[in-house]
Specification:
The structure is a homodimer of 277-residue chains. Chain A has 277 residues and is of the alpha/beta class. Chain A contains twelve helices and nine strands. The first copy, chain A, folds into two domains: 2-163, Rossmann fold, CATH 3.40.50; 167-276, 6-phosphogluconate dehydrogenase C-terminal fold. The first copy, chain A, is elongated.
């Protein structure tokens, strides 16, 4: 087993795989990261030299999306042609377009497990337990390679799913990438909406758990939110357009004082939500 | 002490005040509620006859906003003219407009403590501990009555705040009422945005804790959400307009592929959020 990157996903994967008795070789960028990752026991061998991957049969590229899309040439060269390669990127079409010509046994996949944490301290055991692990194979995807990735996902307790890269990217735009902007706009509106220092202080004092929840993802990692919008731009634009249509309609009901209509819409929302949990 | 209504706020207040050794008389609407409230020990005397309030010096109207704005005539008649009366409504201007002429010692207030629960089973001890309790006195408000309500709030551990009714209503529109619509539109967009049964199922399977948090208040009590929009309509409309301006700008940055601009905005959101927690 090889892992490239020992952040939240890579580090958690290393801990779970080692706990199952598998030997894990990991490549990291910086020697300070390597040192800390060794102290934490995130893998058996941890090096900054890509040669550490030489004997791996299955390699997980647990890199941030930008580094996955523009990998270092030394990494590309070090990947054995016979190894199965998969990634953990949260957008799949651009990843497939890049990696399809680069490696014959590449399988695009996305374990959907996140916490607010990042970096070498973030990895935890059991992160993938019960979480979806989505693969987006194409006609040209190596069937044995796909099966290896499925076994990996199931080894760490994830729920295996398959769909097209396009269906995946549209779905994550709707439930993850677009909501970041919806939530960020709420923080900006609460900040901009109060006139004067006293009103601003009041808004902050009165904000409760509802506001905290609704604003959580908008106040998350700015680089990550930007990367999602950039790499999944078309789907995010479509999702935002759909969102704005719904919000316009709710706004109109309030303008029209159509309280029966508004309550019926909110009733439907209350009924809808459990299906998403 | 008198309490009208033994739902989440009234019931919690009854439990806390009794724990402090105060005698609490409560008026409820239905005899089945009275019976259950007695079993739960929410007050010392619990009746469906407004006469139970006769000897109370301080009465909290812990009623839903619609019943507070259209109280039963028998309740109005039963309130002693010498008693201090306060409410717990989450909108203050319409409450003041109604109650100002009805009672000389009325103090508009709003303890900001909520859970997802409602009804006679909802009351818990310690609900108000550390939470804001906002009063919105006017020039004509009885100063001694205001002081009595302040003491009540502090008795149950709440943090006392005072502001104008208009400042209160604008603040809660920004951090509570408008966000319900923002969150509801997200549920609708996620539901409407996927084409076909397979895509719909995928969206639901992939929704994670981020979506759960952002959609929580939109999937809440529909009657309550509607009542907030109805009773605080002008402030909600203004807050929604401000929200849409922010969202339009974020949308434009994505359209323009202005990733530096988007990251700067999200960076600012990340910095902003702790002030609201």
């Amino acid at each position: 087993m090889g892992i490239v990157g020992l952040g939240l996903i890579g580090g958690s994967l290393g801990l779970d795989l080692r706990a199952q008795g598998l030997e894990v070789c990991a490549l990291v960028h910086r020697s300070s990261t390597a040192e800390r990752a060794r102290e934490r026991g995130l893998a058996d061998r941890i090096e900054t030299d890509p040669a550490v991957l030489r004997d791996c049969g299955l390699i997980v590229l647990a890199l941030p999306l930008d580094r996955l899309l523009e990998p270092e040439p030394a990494l590309l060269e070090a990947l054995p042609a016979t190894a199965v390669i998969t990634d953990v990127g949260s957008v799949k079409q651009p990843v497939l377009e890049r990696w399809r010509p680069w490696h014959p046994r590449f399988v695009a996949s996305h374990p959907m497990a996140g916490t607010a944490q990042a970096g070498v301290e973030a990895g935890i055991t059991g992160l993938f337990e019960g979480r979806p692990w989505v693969a987006t194979p194409e006609a040209s995807t190596d069937a044995d390679a796909l099966e290896s990735v499925r076994q990996l996902a199931e080894t760490v307790g994830a729920c295996w799913l398959q769909c097209t890269a396009s269906a995946h990217d549209q779905a994550v735009a709707l439930i993850s990438h677009m909501p970041v902007l919806v939530s960020a706009a709420l923080l900006e509106a609460a900040d901009q909406g109060s006139q004067g220092a006293a009103a601003e202080a009041l808004v902050r004092q009165l904000a409760s758990s509802g506001f905290a929840d609704t604003s959580r993802i908008g106040g998350g990692n700015p680089a990550l939110g930007t990367l999602m919008a950039r790499c999944n731009r078309d789907a995010v634009i479509a999702a935002l357009a759909g969102y704005r249509r719904q919000l316009d309609q709710l706004d109109q009901l309030v303008h029209d004082e159509n309280w029966t209509g508004l309550e019926a819409r909110l009733q439907r929302c209350q009924e809808l939500r459990p299906a998403f949990l």
